[in-house]
Amino acid sequence: MISPEFFVETLGKHGIDFFAGVPDSLLKNICAYIADHSDSSHNIITANEGAAIGLAAGYHLATGKAGVVYMQNSGEGNIINPLASLTDKEVYNIPVLLVIGWRGRPGVHDEPQHVKQGKVTTGLLDVMGISYEVLSKEEDQAASQIAKAADALKRNEVYALVIEKDTFSEYKLQNIETNDLTMTREEAIQAVAKALAPTDVIVSTTGMISRELFEARAAWGQGHEKDFLTVGSMGHASQIALGIALNKKDRRVWCFDGDGATIMHMGSMAIVASKRPANYVHVVFNNGAHDSVGGQPTVGLKINLPAVAQAVGYSSVYSVSTVEELKSRLTVLSSQSNDGPIFLEVKVKKGNRKDLGRPTTTPIENKQAFMNNLKN
Ligand SMILES: Cc1ncc(C[n+]2csc(CCOP(=O)(O)OP(=O)(O)O)c2C)c(N)n1
Questions:
Q1: DSSP 3-state assignment of 141?
Q2: What's the CA-to-centroid distance between 290 and ligand 1, angstroms?
Q3: Ligand 1 mean position to 89 CA, how many Å?
Q4: Are 101 and 218 contained in the same domain?
Q5: Nearest Cα to 271, choosing from 284, 260, 280?
Q6: In a domain, 58, yes or no
Q7: How many domains would you assign to the chain?
Q8: Which of 325, 329, 317 minimizes the C-alpha distance to 195?
Q9: Strand residues in 92-163 grouped as ranges (E)
Q10: Distance separating alpha carbons of residues 279 and 342, to the nearest angstrom
């Protein structure tokens, strides 16, 4: 394995010391090391991966240097547009070093949402004309690969280092932002799910929110047909919920979102509000972190999400930060089933149960059960 310190210092020897991106579980150790050893102008966690390419491009325009964009391979879709129409040599010819976590690598077992992306990860780079190497787990060889990448950047190329599981050795984040929130995400999810009317449905976001919802249903001996688990497609749960709400006006639709996912495509909030779905409730479990991939910070608790919702036109907005506040708000919301779109921020603490499992039904089974339920 390579130590995160070795990787970052070797990049530094080539003058590469600007980082932007969205964290990934395979890059947890390296993201933590970068966060602890870079000032806030040299490491920026962006709303989405495409935005990180924009930021690295601006950094290059201002400094002449190339920046690093770190990301999970799920973010490749988000970077295609700025790679094709901004950094490409046929457009502005701007160098960027991509560091891409390779979930779903063929031959390595992974969750269903990672399988397809894993298969096309390097093919997408090929089609975009981006040279890449899979980073070696040996430091000497990795150093030569970084030198090769640095040469490509000097020629103004976009270059990628693809990172397999267990490439980086352990590094634990030192500068952890703390807060005094007490409610866990899991208890908040359970409280909201319990308050739903029998015909209500949920669209839940990527990561642990869907996993905790799935396990709650199983623990209560219930089926999963009322929940659409958006296991991939981070940031799009609110639009899936909108598509359902607009076409099933007699069913109340609850979107269970994360702060990272909401911010990833925050413009979608404006579209929810503009369509005025009376049967729509957008619940954001805000822990100020990308908890599902290592707890790296988002700006979720530094911005006023309910004020954003209010400004774009949700009919009512609320924020709660204790279980008691949540339960009393839910009692009121349950009696106002036709007053949406409603926005509810639930401030929760970081962290999860260590033995949290994963959905045991396949995405297709989930979809079929959900669609059957919607027909009733
Ligand atoms: C486009 C894309 N980028 C990155 C990821 C990796 N990823 C999965 S869950 C997650 C964090 C989600 O954070 P948030 O929405 O705040 O929910 P939390 O995990 O904190 O409950 C990330 C970055 C992804 N699945 N898709």
A1: helix
A2: 6
A3: 31
A4: no
A5: 280
A6: yes
A7: 2
A8: 329
A9: 96-101, 131-134, 158-163
A10: 9
Beta bridge partners of 318: 344
- Do 214 and 104 belong to one domain? no
Query: 155 and 214 in one domain?
Result: no
Question: Considering the entire predicted model, what is its pTM?
Answer: 0.97
Is residue 204 within 6 Å of ligand 1 at its C-beta? Answer: no
The amino acid occupying position 368 is Q
Tokens representing 27?
A: 């890059």
Distance 332 CA to ligand 1 centre (A): 30
**CATH number (domain holding residue 70):** 3.40.50.970
Give, for all 376 residues of the chain, the pLDDT tens digit: 999 999 999 999 999 999 999 999 999 999 999 999 999 999 999 999 999 999 999 999 999 999 999 999 999 999 999 999 999 999 999 999 999 999 999 999 999 999 999 999 999 999 999 999 999 999 999 999 999 999 999 999 999 999 999 999 999 989 888 888 999 999 999 999 999 999 999 999 999 999 999 999 999 999 999 999 999 999 999 999 999 999 999 999 999 999 999 999 999 999 999 999 999 999 999 999 999 999 999 999 999 999 999 999 999 999 999 999 999 999 999 887 789 999 999 999 999 999 999 999 999 999 999 999 999 8
Residues 139 and 193 reside in one and the same domain? no
Please check whether residues 156 and 194 belong to one and the same domain.
no
Q: Looking at the structure, do residues 232 and 339 belong to the same domain, yes or no? A: yes
Domain that holds residue 325: 185-375
Query: Between the CA of residue 117 and those of 152, 232, 350, 364, what are the distances in Å?
Result: 25, 10, 28, 17
- Whether 352 lines ligand 1, by a CB cut-off of 6 Å, is no
Position 176 in a domain: no
In a domain, 276, yes or no: yes
Residues 6+ apart with CB under 8 A from 240: 203, 228, 230, 233, 255
Same domain, 114 and 145: yes
Query: Does 191 share its domain with 327?
Result: yes
CB 34 within 8 A of CB 40: no
Residue 221: inside a domain, yes or no? yes
- Which residue has the CA at smallest separation from atom 8 of ligand 1? 207
CA of 259 to the centre of ligand 1 (A): 9
Could you tell me which of 1, 357, 354, 363 has the C-alpha nearest to residue 166? 1
